[in-house]
Design a protein that fits this description.
single chain, mainly alpha, Rna Polymerase Sigma Factor, Chain: A, Arc Repressor Mutant, subunit A, 9 helices, elongated
Length: 213
């Protein structure tokens, strides 16, 4: 039976892991007791607060976006160590270049643009691995058919390996469209291309994936 590409991709949209963050109380309140608490600020206000010298405002920005940025980097490099390093690089670049953020797009879109660039630079220099999102996946023995869970994991690894074989723009388009569920317009903004080019890249990427799988 032919592999159902869409169903295999859909099985891997949400990784089975969570991130727990303990937020320091001192980061929520201004040090001098004046001005609003950081927890009350929206993202443009957090950017403004950071640029005004409240460095803890950037900690809040990291807290809001670190999981999504990590997931995006992981989809490119396929292993936890490189994804963690890339995520750190993304936020370092974002902090250094925050004064260049004009608010033309959302802060998340801007961070995704940085993440895509650093990830593509990484995979250009190093062939990505295909380690599962959980290095030691747990198969529930109470499941109706544990072997089907293993098969699903194997197919997911095959999909990741196939995506890693795509050209850069096609790989980025598939990752952003399938795994992060972004619109063609959002992807165009991140990749700096037209909506038409994004749609074309996505169409050709799916065709190549079907052939590879």
């Amino acid at each position: 039976m032919a592999t159902d590409l869409n169903s295999i991709l859909a099985q891997n949209i949400k990784p089975e892991w969570t991130v727990s963050i303990v937020r320091p109380e001192q980061s929520l309140e201004p040090k001098d007791g004046t001005g609003p608490a950081l927890a009350e600020l929206d993202e443009p206000a957090l950017v403004a607060a950071c640029l005004a010298g409240r460095r803890e405002a950037f900690d809040m920005i990291v807290e809001l976006h670190r999981r999504a940025v990590y997931q995006l980097c992981y989809r490119f490099v396929g292993n936890h160590e490189d994804a963690s390093d890339l995520s750190q690089e993304v936020f370092i670049r974002a902090f250094r270049g925050l004064d260049r953020f004009r608010g033309d797009s959302s802060l998340g879109t801007w961070l995704y643009r940085i993440a895509v660039n650093v990830s593509l630079n990484k995979v250009s220099a190093k062939q990505p691995q295909t380690e599962p999102i959980d290095a030691r996946p747990h198969i529930d023995s109470r499941a109706v058919d544990p072997s089907s869970e293993l098969l699903r994991g194997e197919r997911a690894a095959q999909v990741r390996a196939a995506i890693a074989c795509l050209p850069k723009k096609q790989r980025a388009t598939v990752i952003l469209r399938i795994y992060h569920e972004l619109s063609h317009e959002e992807i165009a903004g991140i990749l700096g291309s037209s909506v038409g080019a994004v749609k074309t890249n996505f169409f050709h990427a799916l065709a190549k994936l079907r052939n590879l799988l």
